Structure formats: C-alpha cells, structure tokens
Amino acid sequence: MNIGQAAQASGVSAKMIRYYESIGLVPPVGRRTSGYRDYGPADLHRLGFIRRARDLGFSIERIRLLLDLWSDQSRSNAEVKAVALTHIKELEERARQLQEMADSLRTLAEACDGDGRPDCPIIQSLETGEAPTCQGEHPAWH
Amino acid sequence: MNIGQAAQASGVSAKMIRYYESIGLVPPVGRRTSGYRDYGPADLHRLGFIRRARDLGFSIERIRLLLDLWSDQSRSNAEVKAVALTHIKELEERARQLQEMADSLRTLAEACDGDGRPDCPIIQSLETGEAPTCQGEHPAWH
DNA sequence: TGTTGACCTTCCCATGATGGGAAGGTGCAG
DNA sequence: CTGCACCTTCCCATCATGGGAAGGTCAACA
C-alpha cells in the first residue's frame, strides 16, 4: 500500500506520515525496490491511533507516551487514565482562558453602540486599560 | 527611556518590542547617539494598547487593524465593534472545540477504572475508534 | 582612570504541527 | 512510448515568542 492510500485510509496526510516517521513516532516502514514506502495493516492501525489521539488534542509528545503505553503489555490502565486526566485539565484550562477573553471583550463590545460615531469604548479600554464607563454601569433604564 | 524600561513599563518584552518594530506594528523609534532606542510616552501608550489587545487574544494582524482604527479620527465605532465581534466568535469557537475534546476524553476516562489492570477503554477507543462499552452503557445502578 | 556588571545592538536559531512547492524518479494505462 | 498520477527528498513558511552569541555602551565605584 502506497503512502497516498495509507493517508486516505488512516486520515493522516502523506506529509504528516513522513513527518511522524522522521521524528520516530512511527517506525520506518518497508520500502519497495522503487523506494516507495509500503504500508501494511499494522502500520495503518498505528496511524489511526495517532489520528484519533490528535483529534482529541493530544500533543505529539503525549501521543508518543500513549503509544508506549499501548504497546506495553504490562501497563496499568491507571497510567493511561492519569495521562488522559492531565490532558483534560489542560484542555479545559485553555478553553477557560479563551472563553474568559471572549467574555471580557463581549463586555466591552456591549458598551459600544456601534452607531457610527468615532467614540468607542473598546478602543478606549485598549488605550487606557480602564473598563468602559456608562452604558449600563448605572442601569437606570432597567 | 531605554527599551528595557519601556518593556517593564508596557508589559511587552524587549524582544517583542523590537519584533513589533521590525514588522511595522510600531514605528521606528528615535535613537540616541549610541544607537540605543529611546522611548517616549506616546510610544509607551502604543505598546500598552498592543499588550492589552494581545491579552484579549487578538492576532498581530488584527491588532494592526485596531491600531489603524485607533489613529483614524473619522472611524466609526461600528467598524471597531465588528472586528471585536468577529474575534469573539473565533475565540468562542476555539474554546468550544477544546471543551468538546475534553468532554469526549472525559467520557472515555470515566469508563476507565484506573485500577491497575492492563485493560483500558481509553487505549481501546484510540485503537479502534469505537466508543467504550459497558461501564455505564446500561446504567442499571441508577 | 580603570574595571565591572548591567544593559543595549544585530543576527541566527528554535519552538509545534502542518502545508506548499520544486526537482527528479516510478508505475500504470492507453 | 507517452502522459499522468504518484512517489522521493529537500527547503521554506506559518505565528508569536524566547534563547543565545558576539560585540558595543553606560553608570557606578575603587
């Protein structure tokens, strides 16, 4: 099986398959006399594992760890779970940070009428670092 | 004011200040006879703006846009708001994706006892792409 | 005055994961 | 035999940031 077919079958691009080989994430695969790489079912299996781990946001280095645990017959599932929980914590931390940024910015955007005047609380806040004033600070219109 | 002091005052590292200058995000600042860069209040003001925009997750290119809008006296706040809303959407999309990954992985992790056996639903799911079985698939204990 | 240590300058390199593209070889179908 | 689709390796780009080397400057202190 050529690299292109392996890419299609595994969902990992040919570029990435070569890259993963170059960094030792997948072992060097057999070559035909032409020099073409030749992929078998076990290779596809490994590539699929990697793709699914990437889809879950695991870094290359952590996938390396997971692959080691995968091939380690004497592994305990507690080790795998620990890696997963660490990763979950990091994902949620990053998600939280992004959402925090979005919330801050939304507060600013809500203070901006967007009515065509040059005056803008968003710009003002970036300029001074101060929270915007008025526009609901004393929400008497409520 | 030297670059180091400007860095301290603005919260942007000296490395980054030079980089921002090199890409034209901040104009070339005055030099002393020694060749040292010399920063004044207006320069600090701009650097502070940039730092706060970075803290809100804006990309360099979008900050360039915001800086243009800042210096444009005839800007309408609607333009600024539009940039902000676009950015909010992107931030929330990324946050959502990360949280989705975390949720998927948490489902797997919950199916894993972590009791020291080699059997592990997390690894199995990465291997086969199938959702884990048992462990609550028929939650009779509810 | 001389020395020392902290600071500045430019330049190059690295990150992480991925894609683009060039130059040249291979394989298969018409 | 020709053409096209595929393969090979190699280099470069991304984005924002930091590290470090080699060399110049400045201020304080003996």
Overview of the structural elements:
Chain A is mainly α. Helices cover 61% and strands 3% of the residues of chain A. Chain A has six helices and two strands, in the order ααββαααα. Chain A has a two-stranded antiparallel sheet. The longest helix of chain A has 34 residues. The C terminus of chain A is likely disordered. At the A-B interface, helix 3, helix 4, helix 5 and helix 6 of A face helix 3, helix 4, helix 5 and helix 6 of B. Chain A binds a DNA duplex (30 and 30 nucleotides) through helix 2. Chains A, B: InterPro entries: CueR, DNA-bd_dom_put_sf, MerR-type_HTH_dom, MerR_fam, Tscrpt_reg_MerR_DNA-bd. Chains A, B: This is HTH-type transcriptional regulator HmrR. Chains A, B: It is found in: Cytoplasm. Chains A, B: Keywords: Coiled coil, Cytoplasm, DNA-binding, Transcription, Transcription regulation. Chains A, B: Its main location: cytoplasm.
